[in-house]
Amino acid sequence: MNITHGHSDGYFEEKKLQAKQGKASGKDKTVVHIIPHSHDDVGWLKTLDQYFWGLREDIQRANVYLIIDSAITELTLNPERRYTEVEMAFFMRWWEQQDDAKKETVRNLVNEGRLEIVNAGWSMNDEACPYYTQIIDNMMIGHRFLKEELGVATNVGWHLDPFGHSSANAALFEDMGFDAFFYSRLDYQDKAKRLEEKSMEYIWRPFDKDSSAEIFTHAMFDHYYPPPGFCWATSSCHYYDDPIVNNEKLKTHNYKERIAEMYEWLAHMRDHYRTGNLLIPMGTDFSYKNAHKIYINTDRLIKYFNEEYDDFELVYSTPSQYVKAVHDSGVAIPLKYGDQFPYAEREFSYWTGYFTSRAVSKGNIRQLERHSSNFNKHWTQAILNEKVSKDQKIKLLGLSQEALRVLGVMQHHDAVTGTEKQ
């Protein structure tokens, strides 16, 4: 892999030499937070249930049940490993299939900070098309499930794939108690400017300079993918990257070359951030169906890289651990005001058509939301007036929950937008 990024031929060799000679002090050492995750669309090329159970793999190889199950199993084998879970529409389905012992294992992993649940909406909602009440309901049903079953709340927003970001969504997340917001899709010109200014991390004040509402925001360096050459989730990568071979008796051993490739990537990446902390998302769409393959290679990467270089330290991490490290660095980061629309990934490539496409679908979603809201008002009033029995209350609550979950699926950034298959 040849990564020069405009640097001279001797740039990386000098950096490597300094690292090997131990010239990097503790103050200069950059901590690289490797965050294992899987971006699991609540409907895209397949339906929610097809994705969860692994049906129709002729369309796309994805099985979210196995992704969650495999990742959690691997966490129990090594206390250093971490995993980040996001979509409650999938996690609830998986949770309902587990026995009490497995549920207790998950609760322990969450309490120990080894399994972190972020965002925790029913789906990862779009930020342009939904009405604000729909965003709130989507987050409410996911957070309520999380609180009732695991006894925890999340304070991290994780919107890696929505096609642009609104001031309203940022303000709502701040009102929900979120301390941080991570995303990956930003306008290509804005990204180029931020890379040059080292402003990929900033404090976002969504509406005006005098507002007290603000949230720490991190823009991903290279979408939400691993560095080139280090994607080991073969079912979701667009390429097939070699594993790290550490047996020097074999002619195919390659671990020294692989860690050198990672060093080049990180040395370039470090030039664009301020705090001495870097974030590497170790995952992509529907990763971790074979979690063992990803973790065993990441284990080797961390071990041999840290043995070779002194100016970086690779660690397993989670979004909240990363936020704490950035905060503890004490480095000042810039402010940003306003929204982030429209999103363009390149010249003449603006993601604006989805604001109005599939108007009938968008209208049906709004109509369902109105019916659901009216239904909730009426049955709540009936309960307050003691006009329904206990059994009726349970039935009405179940109907209300089901409607909210359907609405939650429809707020997904590929659903209400119309960017998924019919």
TrEMBL record:
GO CC terms: lysosome
GO molecular function, one term: alpha-mannosidase activity
Protein's GO biological process: mannose metabolic process
InterPro entries, A to Z: Glyco_hydro/deAcase_b/a-brl, Glyco_hydro_38_cen, Glyco_hydro_38_cen_sf, Glyco_hydro_38_N, Glyco_hydro_38_N_sf, Glyco_hydro_57/38_cen_sf, Glycosyl_Hydrlase_38
Record flagged with keyword Hydrolase: yes
Limits of the Glycoside hydrolase family 38 central domain: 349-422
Keywords (A to Z) from UniProt: Glycosidase, Hydrolase
This protein's name: Glycoside hydrolase family 38 central domain-containing protein
